[in-house]
Amino acid sequence: MRREGSADTRQGRPQEPLRTEFEFELPRGFVDEAGTVHRNGAMRLATARDELLPLRDIRVRENPAYLSVVLLGRVITRLGTLPSVHDGTVENMFASDLAFLQDFYRQINAEGHTRAAVACPHCEESFEVELAGGRLGES
After folding, report:
1. Rounded to an integer, what is the distance from CA 113 to the centroid of its chain?
2. ∠ CA(11), CA(47), CA(29), 5° rounding?
3. Under a CB-based contact definition with an 8 Å cutoff, are residues 31 and 37 in contact?
4. Contact 117, 79 (CB under 8 A)
5. Longest dimension (CA), the chain
6. Cα dihedral 67, 70, 76, 79 sign
7. Residues 22 and 42 sit within 8 Å (Cβ to Cβ)
8. Below-50 pLDDT ranges, the chain
9. Tens of pLDDT, residues 92-120
10. Residue 18, pLDDT score
């Protein structure tokens, strides 16, 4: 059994602790009833239950495209100063923000992180960039 912070024998370096929540910033932002724009939020890793329960939802059965709305409503833990986030919140987001969140969900759940390996187009040096939680140009 491996403990947090123990050596990762594959890489010869300490293993990072498991992150279960990831910060994001919406491209446009959710506008609430008072006209306040909420852009910064957090999404947690999905569980098997998160992916299975929406399949019982009548809205998802009638329209499978609604699955992502229900699923995102379960895994977004914070959005601006809203007291809670649910499928009704996601349902009223701009299409560009919904597409962003769908992509973000895939990144953190399928790949397990929000870092990407890139190479400089000029010198061809390889490095990693953090895709979540920063503004364009920040790493």
Report:
1. 10
2. 95
3. yes
4. no
5. 54
6. positive
7. yes
8. 1-8, 133-139
9. 999 999 999 999 999 999 865 556 667 78
10. 85
Cα distances (Å, whole numbers) of residue 57 to 64, 95, 105, 137: 10, 22, 20, 40
Share of the chain residues as helix, strand and coil, in percent rounded to the nearest 5: 35, 25, 40
3-state secondary structure of 92: coil
Residue 7 has which token pair? 């050596």
Tokens of 104: 């973000």
Provide the residue type at 107 as one letter.
Q
Q: What is the pLDDT of residue 127?
A: 67
Whole-number Å distance between alpha carbons of 119 and 129: 10
Handedness of CA 78, 94, 110, 125 (dihedral sign): negative
Cα 76 from Cα 89, distance rounded (Å): 10
